[in-house]
What does this fold into?
Amino acid sequence: MRSDTPADHADHTAEADRLLRTAAQYPEDQEPLYLQAAAHLELSGDRARAATLYDNLLAASPENPALVKALKAANLWEYGHEAEARAIIDGIRATAPREAAPWEIIAEALEAHDELQASHDCFTTALTLLVDPAEEVPYAAQSLLIGRHRVGRLLGLPHDEWDTLADLVHAGTVPLDELHDPKRLWALGSDNPAELKAEIARLHAELGTYRTALSRPFPVAMLHWPEQELTELLAAYPSLTTEYPSHAAHLAAIESSLRDLSSTGTQNLGIVTATVPSYEAFAASEGSSPTDASLLPQYATTLAARGLAVPWPPARNAPCWCGSSVLYRNCHGTPTLQ
It folds into this structure.
């Protein structure tokens, strides 16, 4: 289940319909709202309608087509369209997306259908693309390490350097080797009270980890103005020049602020992209003027709450968040080059 979908929601169909009405009111936020609605429809059992939402998004050229395709493939496989799902998964693997989420979804879909070696290969390919073992693991990629460890244990593979890294990022009290031990299933059928008690303790720990993931807060997000949008903003509201003396300074300030937050242990950091019309609409909704600089962090938080934050930091060999199309490691990922 995706982390943005409550597990205990009473009426998933009603919630999906509410999200679709909201998407009609706020078309600029259609993609994240449609994805949440599709998740609720899957949980309600209406997988055909969920597939239609994915098709509608793909027809509208989504911001993250690989993510939408991955979700569509996982959904299709669950209701009997295995051949189509496999074709989509093969296409995603061939295009090698530079985001963690599509890889995790297709790897877990393969795992769920006992394609363990293919699942393990997906996790490994994703980590090779997105993670530099010598650098801090991006927040979004940590679940790839955990998933690969789990599948590797199911396959009985030897512990390797990726598994060691998974152990380092794992925050639970029960070690991964214990959580992912295939023999745990046998313990549930044991008549030994000590074994059952130990297994119940492990399950409680695992459930606590899942609950933490499901309830994690919205990302701490920094507001990013693309150069054209910032030029338009300052032309309309010159007083904001004190906040944004130049576009280069704005980009450097984003990276510096995020690094400072990361150094203090803050996780789940992100970046949201601003537009002038969206900011003006937000200011109007707050009964204020766009010249009020105190609105800027509130606007960033609102965009993050709508699911529009891109995780930071990117993998060093992924494109930089600033939109330059240069690899992060050669752009803002190297402070001396900012």
About this structure: Residues 1-9 have pLDDT under 50 and may be disordered.
